[in-house]
Amino acid sequence: MPMFTHLDESGAARMVDVTGKDVSEREAHAEARVLMQPETLRMIIAGEHPKGDILATARIAGIMAAKRTHELIPLCHALNLTSTRVTLNGCERGTGLVIEARCKLAGRTGVEMEALTAVSVAALTVYDMCKAVDRGMEITGIRLLEKKGGRSGHWHATSPGDG
Amino acid sequence: MPMFTHLDESGAARMVDVTGKDVSEREAHAEARVLMQPETLRMIIAGEHPKGDILATARIAGIMAAKRTHELIPLCHALNLTSTRVTLNGCERGTGLVIEARCKLAGRTGVEMEALTAVSVAALTVYDMCKAVDRGMEITGIRLLEKKGGRSGHWHATSPGDG
Amino acid sequence: MPMFTHLDESGAARMVDVTGKDVSEREAHAEARVLMQPETLRMIIAGEHPKGDILATARIAGIMAAKRTHELIPLCHALNLTSTRVTLNGCERGTGLVIEARCKLAGRTGVEMEALTAVSVAALTVYDMCKAVDRGMEITGIRLLEKKGGRSGHWHATSPGDG
Amino acid sequence: MPMFTHLDESGAARMVDVTGKDVSEREAHAEARVLMQPETLRMIIAGEHPKGDILATARIAGIMAAKRTHELIPLCHALNLTSTRVTLNGCERGTGLVIEARCKLAGRTGVEMEALTAVSVAALTVYDMCKAVDRGMEITGIRLLEKKGGRSGHWHATSPGDG
Amino acid sequence: MPMFTHLDESGAARMVDVTGKDVSEREAHAEARVLMQPETLRMIIAGEHPKGDILATARIAGIMAAKRTHELIPLCHALNLTSTRVTLNGCERGTGLVIEARCKLAGRTGVEMEALTAVSVAALTVYDMCKAVDRGMEITGIRLLEKKGGRSGHWHATSPGDG
Amino acid sequence: MPMFTHLDESGAARMVDVTGKDVSEREAHAEARVLMQPETLRMIIAGEHPKGDILATARIAGIMAAKRTHELIPLCHALNLTSTRVTLNGCERGTGLVIEARCKLAGRTGVEMEALTAVSVAALTVYDMCKAVDRGMEITGIRLLEKKGGRSGHWHATSPGDG
C-alpha cells in the first residue's frame, strides 16, 4: 500500500531522509498556463513594446523562485540547482501564455518542486504585471511534464505539453 | 486605452508609485484547486491519520508565503498583512482539494498577490507531500474571487468559488 | 475559558486578525542566558581580545533576527520595528552570559516575539562561536521580562531580570 | 590552549575554512523545553483539538528554521541538510513540552547549529501560539544531546535527554 | 561634536530608535557606474539583442534588492517602500553604464540605503552577466545624489549625477 | 566572437548550465573602497572606541551577504561557500577604508560574485553607520583582484590591490 513519505508513522510531518541516496544527475520539466483576454496577450506579445519587461520580469522571477523553493515548501530539501531555464510563449489558440521551466541538479533529490515553483511564480508575476488591465486572468495547468534521474527513473505526463 | 501600470513609457519595469495613495482597509480572497486521484484525496482527508500533518503543513506554508510575496513577485510592494487565513477542503466531486486564502491589510496597496501566492504555495506543498503516491496531480484554477477596498473598489469573479 | 487565539474553531492555525486594532506604541523586553564553563566566559569577556568580535557578532545576529521574526514564526505578523537593542553581559556569578533585547514598534501588534527571537538567536550565535572550546554550553531562561502598550497593557515577569 | 576558531589572530570574526575537510556523514541531536502552566499543556496535548495545529505548526517551523540556520547565525556555513525531524512531547512531570530535533548531512561541517536552531524556533512558535493564555512560559534547556561524524567524532551530553 | 548614531555610549551597535519620529514623505536618489570595455558596452546597448535581458535583469535585481535592504544592512529598519525605480544608461563617453535608483517612502526613516543598495545590486548583476566577456569591469561612484524629507531636510551632492 | 553566456540564442536570461562541470576548489578575492572625510576615518579607526562595532558590523554584514549572493544576483547559482573572510583597513593616504573579501568553494562554479557582493555590502554597511556624520561618502573601486580554479584558471587584475 502506498504511504505518504513525508509523514512518519504517527502522521507527523518530516523531511524525508536522503542521506543514503546517491548523488546523480536529475532533471525536471514543468508547465503552467495563464489564461487571459486575447487583447491582454496581444499587448504583452505584440504590443508597443515588443521586448518590454513583462516576459523578462516573469522569467527572472521564475528563476529566482526556483532557487528559493526550499524556503517556501516546508519539507523540500535545500539544494544547489546546476541549471534553470524558464520560457514564456503565447499559446497556439491565443488564449494565454504557456510557461515552462527546466531544472537540473547533480544531487540526492529530485527537482520537480523547483520546476513547479518556477512556473508558478512566473505565472503569478505575469498576473501581477497585467492585473490592472485584466483582473480575471486565471493560472491553470500547473503540472510536471517529465522527470529524469534518481531511483524512480524516467517519468513523463500522459498528455504532452505545448512547449 | 489601458496601459500596463508596471511598465514606464519606455517599457521598463518599475514598482508602481503608491506614495500618494490613502491608507485604507483592503481585502482579497483567492482560490486554487489540486486535482488528484480519488484515492489520494481519500488518504489525505479520511485516511489513517484523520488530522495528519498534510493539511496543516499546506496551511502554514500558504500563510508564510503570503508574508513573503514581495520577495517573490518582483514589483510587489512589501507590506504588513493584518490577517491571513488559508483553508483546504475536499471538493464536492471528490476529484481534489479546494484551497482558499483571505488576506487583509490596512495600507496603500491591494493584497490580491498575497492571496494568490498563498493558495499557490499551499497547493505546491500538497503536491510535494503527495507526489510519491500520485505524481500526475495538477494545480488549476488559481484565480482571484473577490477584492475590496482601494480606489478600484469592490470586484468579484463572474463565476463563484466553491468555498 | 481562555482559548488559543491562533487556532480557529476547527483547530486550524491562522494569523490573528489585527486589522481593527489601533496603531499604538508598543515595547517588549526579553532575556536569555548562556551557561558555560567559567574559563569560556573569561575568554569571551576578559581574554586577549577584550572587545573581540564574539559579543559584537551576537549583538548583530540578534538585531538582524528580530527583523526576520515573521519569517521564522509562522503566525507572526510582519512589522517594521522602530528600535531594537541587544546587550550581552557576564552574569554575576561568572557562570555565563545574560542577553537582553528591547524592541519597539508603532503598530498594531505586540513585539514580544521579536524580543524573544533576538535573545534566542544572539544566544545561538554565542554557542556557535564558542562551541569548539565548550560544547556543553546550555541556553536557558528565555523569557519575557516586560511588555507595554496594546490592549493587554503593561505586563512584567514576577521574578525580575538581571539586566 | 584552546582558541576561538571563529576569530582570527586579531580577534576578527571569520567563517572557519572547511575547504580541505572531507565530505562525510554527520548527525546532531538537540533538545529544548518549554515550561508552562499545567493547564496550558493540557490544552495543547489533550484539549478539544487533540491533533490541533499547535504541535504541527511548531514542527514545521522548526524544520524550516533548520534550513535557514546559516541566514541567522552569522558564521555558519550554508549547507544542504539531508534529513531533519522535530518532535514535541509533553514532559513526564506535566510541566511543559520537550522538543527534540535530529539533523543529518553528508558534507564538510557539523550540523549542531541546525538542530539547536530547529528546537529554538519550534519552542518560540509554541510560545507565540500560547502566549495569549500563558504569557509567563519559559524556554529552557536548549542544548546539544549528541553529535556524530567529522573529525571530532562522537560526542554526547553527560546527562541524557528525555526523548 | 558629531557622534555615530548607530553606536551607543559603550560603542555597541544598535538600531537607531525612530519610534518618536513623524511619518512623512521621504525620497532618495542614488547612482553607480560600471566601467567596462567599450566593446562590452556596445554588446549590451547596441548588440544583436537590442532589448535583450541584461538591462531588464539588472533593473529587476535592483528593485528586488531595495526591498531587502534591511536584511542585508544590519542596522537598517525594515520599511515598506512606496516606489522604486532603477534606470541604466550608457554613459556619455562610452566607458560604461550609469545606474540610478529613486526610492520613496511614507514613513519614519530615510531611504538612502535602499537607493544605494538598489544601484549596487543592479551593478553587481551587470558584472555577473558580462563577466565572461570582460572580467576586469569595475563598479565605481556609488553615492547618494539627493535626499528629501525627514528632520535633516533636503540634501544634494555637490557634484551632480549624469542621469 | 565572445557571447553573453547568461543569455540564450533569443536574448533571454538563463542560469548557465554547470551540470557537467567538475567539482573543484575555487577561490576569489575582491576589493572595494569607501572614500570619506579624514575625520570620519579617524573616528572609525582611532576614535574613542578603538574596537567599536563599526568595523565588526561591516565584517559580519559582508560575510552574511556572501552567503546570500544567489538571492540577490538573479542568475547566480546557489552554492555552499567553504570559507569567507572580510577585512577592513584604513587606506594609506587616510582618505577612506579598503575592504577585501576572500571566498572559497569546492564546487562547480566560480565565487567571484560572492566576494564582490561581500565587499559591496560591507561598504554599504559602513556608509549606513557613518552617514549621519558624513553623508557625502562614496563607494568606489569594487573589482575582482584574483580568481583561482575552474576551467578559466588563474586570473588577476592588472593593477594590484592595497591589501
From TrEMBL, chains A, B, C, D, E, F:
Origin: domain of life: Bacteria
Which Pfam family, giving just one, matches this sequence? MoaC
Q: Which terms does the record give in the GO molecular function aspect?
A: cyclic pyranopterin monophosphate synthase activity
Keyword entries, A-Z: Lyase, Molybdenum cofactor biosynthesis
* Enzyme Commission designation: 4.6.1.17
Q: Where's the active site on this chain?
A: 128
Q: In which pathway does it act?
A: Cofactor biosynthesis; molybdopterin biosynthesis
Per its record, the protein catalyses: (8S)-3',8-cyclo-7,8-dihydroguanosine 5'-triphosphate = cyclic pyranopterin phosphate + diphosphate
Using the UniProt record, name the top-level EC class of this enzyme in a single word.
lyase
Annotated residues for binding of substrate: 75-77, 113-114
Q: Which residues form the Molybdopterin cofactor biosynthesis C (MoaC) domain?
A: 15-150
Is Lyase a UniProt keyword of this protein? yes
An individual GO BP term: Mo-molybdopterin cofactor biosynthetic process
Q: Where does the UniProt annotation place the signal sequence?
A: none
What family does this chain come from, according to its entry? Belongs to the MoaC family.
- Assembly with partners or alone: Homohexamer; trimer of dimers.
HAMAP family, A to Z: MoaC_B
The free-text function statement in the UniProt record for this protein reads:
Catalyzes the conversion of (8S)-3',8-cyclo-7,8-dihydroguanosine 5'-triphosphate to cyclic pyranopterin monophosphate (cPMP).
Q: Name it.
A: Cyclic pyranopterin monophosphate synthase
